[in-house]
Amino acid sequence: MKHAGIALIVLAAMAIMPVAAQDTKPTADAEPEFSNVFFGLVDGKLIPLERQIASVHVKGGVLSGFSGFGELSGPHSPVRFSHANNLQLIVKPLANENHDPNQDPDTIYHVREVKSKKKVREWLFGKVTASHYYNRLGEGLLPVKWTKYGNQSLRVTLGSLPAGEYCASPLGQEVAEQRVVTVFCFGVD
Q: Are 52 and 72 contacting, i.e. CB atoms less than 8 angstroms apart?
């Protein structure tokens, strides 16, 4: 009888306790865990891109001038997209005291086409002759459309891409004083 009384008290307490409301909000878009890491977005899922440490090389000579190249291992990325219309990438901007959340993403990131060679992929970023410096950073950059994605990330929508090799990275890193840079690569078939 004593146990039946306790059971009735427990049941009564459960009956008057507020029932936890089920979350009826739509689930948030999946976002990258870390800043400055690019992902492909396919059917609402984040697809990791190939992460490479690019090296910076200088080629040439005194008479022909010197050219600076970014170089990636292998002629093709193992991450392939078969559809090239409106391909989307996701990146979470670096959050720190120097970052303005309203800053134009084109001043922070870029996506570029890279040339596939026999054993490497590369892009030209500058050339120096005896009398001139030619900045080539804009060559190969793709026109993109940026929109906010989720709570903290950005979506970059690329136009129609021809078959080829591409990479995304924070803007200007390949000409930093460092001799290497992290880029995120993919290919289109």
A: yes
At 95 the three-state DSSP class reads: coil
Tokens of 82: 């078969």
E runs forming strands in the chain: 39-42, 45-48, 50-61, 65-73, 80-81, 88-91, 109-116, 120-128, 133-135, 144-149, 153-158, 164-170, 180-188
Cα distance between residue 93 and residue 95, in whole Å:
6
Looking at the DSSP bridge assignments, the partners of residue 124 are 69
Nearest of 80, 92, 103, 93 to residue 161 by alpha carbon = 80
Confidence of residue 98 (pLDDT cuts 50, 70, 90): low
Residue 8 has pLDDT above 60, yes or no: no
- Give the mean pLDDT of the chain: 77
Q: What CA–CA distances, in Å, run from 57 to 53, 68, 174, 178?
A: 13, 6, 10, 11
What is d(CA 85, CA 176) in angstroms, rounded to the nearest whole number?
Answer: 32
Q: What average pLDDT does range 98-102 have in this prediction?
A: 69
Q: What's the pTM? A: 0.74
The C-alpha R_g of the chain, in whole angstroms, comes to 25
